[in-house]
């Protein structure tokens, strides 16, 4: 397949490598920074083009959007208008309003757009979803998600990415709905600045707890932190009427030292989330190109991205008000999490 | 030490056995049910007496109160008025108002009363508290407590015991404050009847999630369920600026079967919470009698019991209102959790 | 049941307590040391009697033999001659010849004798045996047993108990045969004095590895050490054509501390083997009295004790010669491990 | 660096990919099978050449030997004679005599040759070796190594590779010496054909247990199986006077399902040993080229490969004779495991 890449930064280069490794042609790369674009071009032979011209020229069958978050919506809208399928990193827009506009436009035009909620392609999370689907836990009652990052990202990134709830949260709000195949109803949330007071400048928090009620009554809890002293920590647990499913990242500790005082120390070669989730980006790309080839709808529709942002927005309001806050899912097709 | 026992039911008989095993004399047993009292009397040689007469006669140096929850406060108040030290099962009173009255009375009279929050004597929880105290996790940021029972208790017990928040919750609200040695500030809570609709008759829930803010900003989360399909499940996790501490019940799975499909099945001889926590009841009794002998204040003062009930009451109000609800700790001595 | 106890030392007192707790009458206690006998008598009301007189007087329906190892055979032989059933601690005799003589005598007289290989009553080992019996591992191919003690026993105990192979080894040689329900064929062994040179005085080793071939070809490996720096360590693993079963002691680590460097420290309240295996002594006594009451054969026949000693003797010869050494099982009824 | 590759089969292609990925030039590929050579040539641009001509032409600065085992020694000898450094897959020769001749020749000529015992580059094993070196276990007493493959290799491979002891065993015999930094003294071994009778044709076994005594008295045990029903299983444990170190492959089970009967099922996405050890081949290549560039001696000298084969040969003799068999390490430089 002949693809174009929008955004030649860190995430863009990752996509470029995956595109080549999967045997696709990277026909064009679009980035306002000529140096970044040139680097991707050198590595892959892609032509450096301005996005509008590239779409007008029909240079690519599909577009992968990996620009900074604030630029996603404009690039995606251009693809929609040109009738070119696209795979877009989350979030869809710079803010909820922008995301809503994009989703509306895409729906009106019947556009083919996939949002890259790549954690859906993690094999462990996949095993959990299969288990729920097969009925291994029965009716879902309690869902717990932990996401604690290794370290606080730069303040500039926090501001541009949408902060704890839209940036980190979106992945896990989506996971909760996708794993249980349910839409959310309401949210209660609390946020704190416990170790990173400078986040006040971005009106953001370093630590948050969110309780989300799902359509059939199950309670989900999210515990988010921008910094776990011991490294990246992500866990999912789903309890229902018949059992429980759990998984964690990193999956385990590889080497054990049993000390003379009887304490067992378990250590593993450290891995970053980038290493850990690397296969999911390639898998998301495969799912995108495979669905296009077969004329199928996108595996993760735009609505899924919008839904994650709607939950983030409701959680933000709940932190501010201290109140249980409904999540407005009007217009969201349940299939975006339940397919 | 010469002790009397109030209440000869299941919990009373457990106390009777521990009293004898610890080498104390069980001088008297008080229970309105003559059959129950007779059974304890036969086992231990204790005299069957009415509580008022027993106190008047000075039959015991101290009293252990293990009657049904609704009768705790009256028995404790009688001990206070008679100037006899007592160890009382939680909750202190039939409702928060009764508990407040008892706490006030005990404070006015300078009474010696200990509330039996026995989980404080679990060795694993003790290891966690020591770890926090020694600074192993640094400044506490996130606390997670799971408490899921093996099965829903009889409706009559639910009604008399105070329900999910006062009965089960009290232990874990106390643990959260005691492990971190902090008072609470506010609570957000959600409750559901997911599998036990008949709890509506007791205005109670089978599943609840509670987020508690502590004095220094740390966030605690509680996930309570009246029925885990796989058995009793209690876990505590404390993350801070320097690391994380975790423990769980049952502690582990003893036997592993690795199947031909590569799946490892881990199973343990089942143990009930009664077996698991049996040593904590004996340890609580030891702590009570030892502190009396040495003329020390009670290791778990009445204020600790009242604090747990105050959190439960605030959580109940938050479930009803959907709002973040302050916990009123006026008059609670921080030493009751921080000593 | 009316029982007598031979031996009022540490192990004898344990049996005395179990006898009383199980509701049996301890009618008599026999110990040449009047002080030891008096202590058991005071605790239980048992009469102090000389063994021969006790048997002649018909003072007990059955006898529990818990004297020092060197005295086992004489006491057991007296019971055989008097026609009184007995439960005997292992080893049967001071040496293999004494054990053979006792087994021969018991067989000739059709005596009821049970040897107390108490690890057979551990619930975890029981789960493993059930798994093998149900075919969970298919045809057994590899068996691994680890037994490392917390500390080197006193030299006097080593000398009287039969040393590493007869004392510690017997339990595990029996377990290997009992778990797989097979007789042994041959053994290869190596012994070392790595940290306890004074064991040379007892011609014993502190560390040994033994490979045992079973009747159907499976290979068992034993790794024995008199001192694990981190505490008692016992593990069993059974691999076959369809899967693997594993268990370990202590079963698990209860509390986990994840440090800032990502290392997870797991610690448990320490337990000694005496605490860990305490329930197995009571269970062995129950099995003994229950089989007597129902007129059934002893659950662990004398042959099982002899078999364990035969393996120990062959292993000792292999250490000395460096050669694969057959285990002579002529006359051993396979039912003693396979029932 | 400009490299040549001898052998364009499965292992050769792996090396070719690693050479390119590491940024080296693959100048030439030598394989008698023109199709295999052509495939590597197409992928990498390497010239297809006959080994002798390639060496004569000075086409490469160093050679990677990945031909079938029987052809290793001839290729390595050619490199030695041409004075070209080489990295050779194990075993060195078709049999012990061939390996000895190669080692002798290399020593005489002062050749630069590295044997690719790639497990030394596994990060977990590396953590264990570092732990031993730092004294975390104190004086080593007991070493246990498990190596059970997923399935029996084809009989043709068994015959050409040297069988269970030379093929699989060599890696683990080397690990035992390298982890403890000690030479071996003597070996006791037992071999069985439990599930693969056709191995009789290769005079080989499917299951073996080997006990190896190290220079300072520590006992090592190896349990080898050609087929674990649940998949590849490799484990290492080292106990000493101060503690224990352990690691296992696969390191852990990622997803846990706790069933309604309380059994926890742990499953992980399956990984083959090829996936698991993939990074070690790249790391071995890096170590080889880095040492060449810096003018350092080879990180794994030929002597290490010879030592592993000497242990394998002694183990084979012990299986045949049933006797403890010395390992002749005359002429082996201890530095090959202790550096």
Please give a structural write-up.
The two termini of chain A are 25 Å apart. Chain A folds into two domains: 2-111, NAD(P)-binding Rossmann-like Domain (Rossmann fold, 3-Layer(aba) Sandwich); 120-271 and 301-338, Dihydrodipicolinate Reductase, domain 2 (2-Layer Sandwich), CATH 3.30.360.10. In chain A, α4 (69-82) runs parallel beside α5, α6 (123-133) crosses α8 and α7 crosses α8. A seven-stranded mixed sheet of chain A has the order 12-11-7-10-9-8-15. A six-stranded parallel sheet of chain A has the order 3-2-1-4-5-6, with helices on both faces. A two-stranded antiparallel sheet of chain A has the order 13-14. Chain A has eleven helices and 15 strands. By secondary structure, chain A is an alpha/beta fold. The first copy, chain A, has helices spanning 10-21, 34-44, 51-56, 69-82, 96-109, 123-133, 155-161, 163-180, 273-293, 302-321, 335-338, and strands at residues 2-6, 25-30, 47-48, 62-65, 86-89, 113-116, 140-148, 184-192, 207-214, 219-225, 233-240, 243-249, 255-259, 264-267, 325-326. Chain A is globular, with a radius of gyration of 20 Å. Chains in contact: A-B, A-C, A-D, B-C, B-D, C-D. β13 of chain B pairs antiparallel with β12 of chain C, so a sheet runs across the interface.
């Amino acid at each position: 397949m002949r693809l174009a890449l929008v955004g030649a930064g860190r995430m863009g280069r990752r996509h470029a490598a995956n595109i080549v490794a999967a045997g696709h042609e990277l026909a064009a790369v679009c980035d306002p920074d000529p140096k970044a674009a040139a680097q991707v071009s050198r590595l892959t032979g892609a032509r450096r083009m301005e996005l509008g011209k590239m779409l007008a020229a029909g240079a690519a069958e599909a577009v992968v959007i990996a620009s900074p978050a604030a630029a996603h919506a404009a690039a995606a809208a251009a693809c929609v208008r040109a009738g070119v399928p696209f795979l877009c990193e989350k979030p869809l827009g710079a803010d909820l309003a922008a995301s809503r506009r994009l989703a509306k436009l895409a729906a009106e035009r019947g556009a083919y757009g996939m949002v890259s909620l790549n954690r859906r392609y993690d094999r462990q999370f996949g095993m959990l979803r299969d288990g729920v689907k097969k009925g291994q836990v029965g009716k879902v009652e309690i869902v717990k998600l932990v996401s604690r990052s290794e370290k606080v990202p730069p303040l500039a990134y926090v501001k541009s990415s949408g902060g704890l709830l839209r940036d980190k949260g979106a992945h896990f709000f989506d996971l909760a709905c996708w794993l249980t195949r349910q839409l959310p109803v309401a949210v209660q949330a609390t946020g704190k600045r416990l170790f990173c007071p400078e986040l006040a400048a971005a009106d953001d928090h370093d630590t948050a707890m969110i309780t989300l009620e799902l359509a059939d009554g199950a309670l989900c809890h999210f515990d988010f932190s921008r910094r776990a002293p011991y490294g990246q920590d992500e866990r999912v647990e789903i309890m229902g009427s018949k059992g429980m499913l759990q998984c964690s990242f990193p999956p385990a500790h590889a080497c054990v030292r049993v000390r003379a005082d009887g304490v067992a120390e378990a250590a593993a070669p450290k891995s970053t989330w980038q290493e850990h989730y690397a296969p999911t980006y390639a898998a998301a790309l495969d799912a995108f190109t495979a669905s296009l080839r077969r004329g199928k709808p996108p595996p993760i529709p735009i609505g899924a991205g919008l839904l994650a942002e709607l939950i983030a927005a409701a959680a933000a309001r709940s932190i501010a008000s201290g109140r249980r806050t409904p999540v407005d899912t009007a217009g969201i097709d349940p299939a975006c999490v339940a397919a």
